[in-house]
Amino acid sequence: MSARRLGVAVAVLVSIVLATAGCVKSDDSTHEVFNDPHGTPGFSLPENPRVVALGWSDGGIALELGVAPEAIYDWMSIGADTKGVGEWDAAAFGDKTPQLIPSQSDGNFNMQQIEELRPDLILNVRAKTDDDINADLSKIAPVVTSPAGTNDYAINWQTQTEIIGAALGKHDEAEQLIGQTTDAQQTIREQHPEFAGKRFVYATKFGTAYGAYLPGDSRFDFFADLGFVVNPPILQLQSTGFAAQVPVERVGDLDAEAAIFSTINLPFSDLQNDPLINSLAVVRDKHAVLLPQKDPAIMALSAGTPASLKFAAQRITPQLAAAVPA
């Protein structure tokens, strides 16, 4: 190649690099990390923002606020049939189908995959509290997280809704959603005064051990809002933040006045035939409700969004009323 042609080729290459440089994000660029339920974020969003929802049920709450995410991390393996958000929310997507990011056993994210989704906003609220992960995400887009000091996955559903609402510019809509759900819970509490003050556990069997959800987690707080109180021995057990670990020798701590029992990644028959669970007075006296992991009410309670909790209330309240002594 002649020197002249080489010079032209180099000039063209340089011009291409300069033209595209503005499209390449610097590794040093960062965006705001927002975690204040009552604050105003320092970023602005386009009219129809591209939202990637990574936290547990963050996508469902965004959808309930009128913003359909581009992608959802499918923590509960809900699947494509209900678009990763469950039957209580799927219709709100209309004709749109989000990309589902399969849940990984280690809970890690593929940063390149997330960047390729070109998000305007990343929701990572009900999630593992990890500053390094959020710092990496902030190199892609503004990130919404739980308030400082929140244990892993232990944010309550009201605060989760408030934070996502604030980030999306939908504060009033978030307050309305919360109010509708708390009103429904208040109605149940008034209709069932026998729930008030009853010692309660919501427990699961998994592997060779058991667990019980704690106050601060939506799965327990739902029942607390109906009037139930935590069975005191549960608070003395080792905590993972949102649940107490119940070793075999402490299964008796699950013997409350009322209970919900389910499974995690085990056949329902393993729970039904469990001799330790069946030895508890709360089970023998039929004051417990046993439900499989994929029961719609259990799935809705695990989702813990305003709409899913109302959905769960409609299905589980009659069973509780039949089980709880007056």
UniProtKB/TrEMBL annotation:
Chief location: other
Keyword vocabulary terms for this entry: Signal, Transport
Annotated ranges, domain Fe/B12 periplasmic-binding: 50-324
Lineage: superkingdom: Bacteria
InterPro entries: ABC_transptr_periplasmic_BD, Bact_iron-sidero_bind
Signal peptide span: 1-21
Compartments, as annotated in UniProt: Cell envelope
Family: Belongs to the bacterial solute-binding protein 8 family.
Family matches, as PANTHER family: FERRIC ENTEROBACTIN-BINDING PERIPLASMIC PROTEIN FEPB (PTHR30532:SF24), IRON III DICITRATE-BINDING PERIPLASMIC PROTEIN (PTHR30532)
Protein name listed in UniProt: Iron-siderophore ABC transporter substrate-binding protein
Lineage: Bacteria, Bacillati, Actinomycetota, Actinomycetes, Mycobacteriales
